[in-house]
Amino acid sequence: MTQPIFATHEVFNQSPPFEGVDFFAADRPLVEAVRANGGAAAEKELSDFGKTWGSAAMAERGRVANENTPKLRSFDSRGNRRDQVEFHPSYHELMAHSAHAGVHNSTWSADGKPAGDAAEVVRAAKFYIAAQVETGHLCPITMTRASVGALAMQPDLLAKVMPVLSTRSYDPSFAPWWEKRGMTLGMGMTEKQGGTDVRSNMTRAVRDGDAYRITGHKWFMSAPMCDAFLVLAQADDGLTCFFMPRFAPDGSVNAIQFQRLKDKLGNRSNASSEVEFVGAYAERVGEEGKGIRTIIQMVQLTRQDCAIASVGLMRSGLAHALHHARHRSVFQKHLADQPLMQAVLSDMALHVEAGVALVMRLCRGFDRTPHDPAEAAYMRLLTPAIKYWTCKSAPPFLYEAMECLGGNGYVEEGILARHYRESPVNAIWEGSGNVMCLDVLRALAREPEAATAVMQGLATETKSLPGAGEAITFIGKAFRRPDGERVARLAVEKLALLSAAAALNGVSPRNAELFAATRLATNHASMYGAVDLLPSDTRALLERALP
Ligand SMILES: Cc1cc2nc3c(=O)[nH]c(=O)nc-3n(C[C@H](O)[C@H](O)[C@H](O)COP(=O)(O)OP(=O)(O)OC[C@H]3O[C@@H](n4cnc5c(N)ncnc54)[C@H](O)[C@@H]3O)c2cc1C
Predict the structure, then answer these.
(1) Which residue's CA lies nearest to atom 31 of ligand 1?
(2) Which CATH superfamily is domain 293-545 in?
(3) Apex CA 139: angle with CA 109 and CA 36, to 5°?
């Protein structure tokens, strides 16, 4: 029997899927930034990771994990409490891939000490690559990695958990952490009456022998199927950090009751719960009353990851936009060959080059902090500034990337709509924009000499760059003003741009000059592409971004 012919037209002039790409090797600015910051020895490992995460199979897992969002199962069919969250198998596969590559722990040695060498830089490159595919699962990945910073304040507890935390196994079974092949950790700080102001926490901790019983709530507690959480609660001597496992030491399910899961703009593969603790078992981490000082050791590391993920998201936007522009013809000419599209794409490429150079430079600071006070000062002053600038620049960047794909950019089948919805969260959580600016001011006020030394270092590194001297004068004046808080956003953005120019100068001096000329010597226009770059620079930027 002859088949009816439904074909009304031939499909052509659509860009092929951006898959089967080595997300490491295809990204010259990343390769060079890793090299410049001490990670050259890991290039083969990173290329293997880049090929896996650049595959069609990983892209599909990312899509499916976000379309099939986690479900809260509060009760079983007989009415018994379950308090479990079910995830799609694709989510678990993403978790397993990240865990096997050590994205959740490779910056620590087996006993919980900093791993040294370029462990931060290498792990950051993986985090950056994974963020280009799926960011929701990176929430428990970053929290698990960062938790070790806080657990270090309680060495006996750290020694107990590290044998499980330091494995590269992902074990999603609902069982006590000490019986598992690997574990993940989350954190609970934010309550209804205050997230930034955690001093307002009302959740109470009461001593119970060597441990504590915790009663109260958290308004946001993400990744609720983690094996344990670092939680803030008020003890007799004030706000204190606690380790709250899903199972009590006798093997019973701990009294952690999830009320609902948040219905979020993005970050949909990840569950974020509202939760109540009903006399939940917990162990103290650090001293009573020193909860903020303890948990900040964790938060400093998650802030670093917010910055890395934001640049990763922008990199993905740029790569998809450039790939599309090279395949799509409009008026008989590829978009990538049209001068105005070249202006847009090359300006975006410059932004991402500076971003990746900056986050890798920051990670070198984290790598060297344990042995180098100058690097510790760099890390302390610039982490909040870098989080501020990278995270807040991601949503408008991704919008522009989307527009490069025209209508295809706006539909859910492509990845850019998801990236766009995801991007604001990195600025909101782990300290929102204003909070980051206030944190820079705090670092300046508490350690003025260290901050001055960091500024002097940046001045030396940027002395040949246009606008750098003026930027340094501006930052100095703004921070010295008695009403410095009022103009903090002006100064912090300038500080981040200066640091980015300095970091890029250590990777690509020509592009650092272009970055400084368009971002320091003049204020950048509010739209990408409103710059006057030479055609040779435009070509070079795009070739580096994607060969
Ligand atoms: C998807 C998602 C997941 C989350 N997961 C977790 C989690 O797992 N664990 C957890 O503990 N929390 C989590 N949070 C909560 C998040 O950390 C908080 O929302 C965030 O810290 C802000 O706190 P808030 O919502 O109470 O806002 P507020 O503290 O009320 O802040 C509101 C605004 O005021 C600004 N602001 C605050 N102080 C000042 C000031 N002094 N001057 C000027 N401006 C100021 C802030 O920058 C912010 O823009 C999550 C949030 C989201 C969106």
Answers:
(1) 196
(2) Butyryl-CoA Dehydrogenase, subunit A, domain 3 (1.20.140.10)
(3) 55
